Amino acid sequence: MLAAIGSYSQLIRDKLHLASPLLRQPWLSLYLEGLCSPSSSLADGPVTVGMSLDIASIDTISEINMDYTATIFLRQRWTDERLVFEGNKSLSLDGRLVELLWVPDTFIVDSKKSFLHDITVENRLIRIFPNGTVLYALRITTTVACNMDLTKYPMDKQTCTLQLESWGYNINDVMFYWTRGNESVSGLDTLQLAQYTVEDHYTSVSEAVYETGNYPKLVFHFELKRSILYFILETYVPSSLLVVLSWVSFWISLSSVPARICIGVTTVLTMTTLMMGARTSLPNANCFIKAIDVYLGICFSFIFGALIEYAVAHFCTLTHPDAHIYMYGHHMHDFDDEKNGMVHTISSHSNRAKRRKEADTTPNAASASLELTVSTSSPSGIEPNPEASPPEPTHWCITVLTTIRKVLRAIYCCHVENPHHIDNYSRVTFPLSFVMVNLLYWTYYLYF
To answer: Which of 44, 137, 256, 338 has a C-alpha 20 to 30 A away from that of 238?
Structure first.
């Protein structure tokens, strides 16, 4: 076994000798003797590995896949006593020799797809300092999952994470820490994103517990706030203007059926198209209702309500006995003032003669009604026997009659005297209701 290890170390020394003359140093030979046994470098306890990140770019943030793609520079530092050498200058090694050295087995936990840049060579940096400190840097592009809560979309804030763990070494072998705390991550201040702004970021240290043991874990949290200006210009303003456009029909006469139907149907179809376009950039299988869906639903309800309003008003004009008067001449009472004086004189004389005739027949009618009352009450003028009176109605009959009376009264209250007033009321109620709903909507989603 020892012979095999010695031959393997000799093979590595030969490769290093051929790779670069700078590597012909005795301290490196001593390091290679124990390379096949990483535990020799961990004999005095766990190796502490300090990490720092530089965010080069965040390319895309996808709500459909719920992930983000970022390019990062990952830098790791640790001290290996076997690599101590004399001198005051650091030594930079070729990145292709990293397989010949011990490095931490760090991986990104929630990564869906990652790759190491290799143009023109693999983007790796290995630098060894005289005290045995090793700097190992990588340039990685990774797509990381980010669980998003889109309930307040597009007024939402998302908190995404980048988690780094050790794959094979547990906390007894390796310990991770951030080299400068929250300042260990740089590059976010100058980062430009399409729809987001980075509001806050911080780091944390924890442990990952698995069936195979506890492993060191570093977490980088960053909070993204979505820019709502794009959605205001793209969705909110057009949908609000469509609602206002549907109110134009309230100022058109009820007799103009094609004009009012055209406005109602056009706004409904346009709003439907706008709602379908707003959902294309979002997941299709969301189990929650987003804020933009609520607003589009409100606008669609107002537009559809304006169309239904005309249907109700038109139906009332058809069922009303004086519908033609309300639709085509609600100022017909002015026509009486334009009649000639002859008609007024004849009508006044006829009314006067009619009143005189009614005055002459009033005493006779009063006496006849009195006689009729006496005769019907009793043949002999005596009050009827109480036993012959009809029985009093039961309690349930009174309840039924009271209920019917209330229903009839409610139906009578809903009766429209003038269908032309429906449009007059709608001109006020629809705008006021839309303003109130908007105040409640924006207050809730912006401050709660």
So the answer is: 256
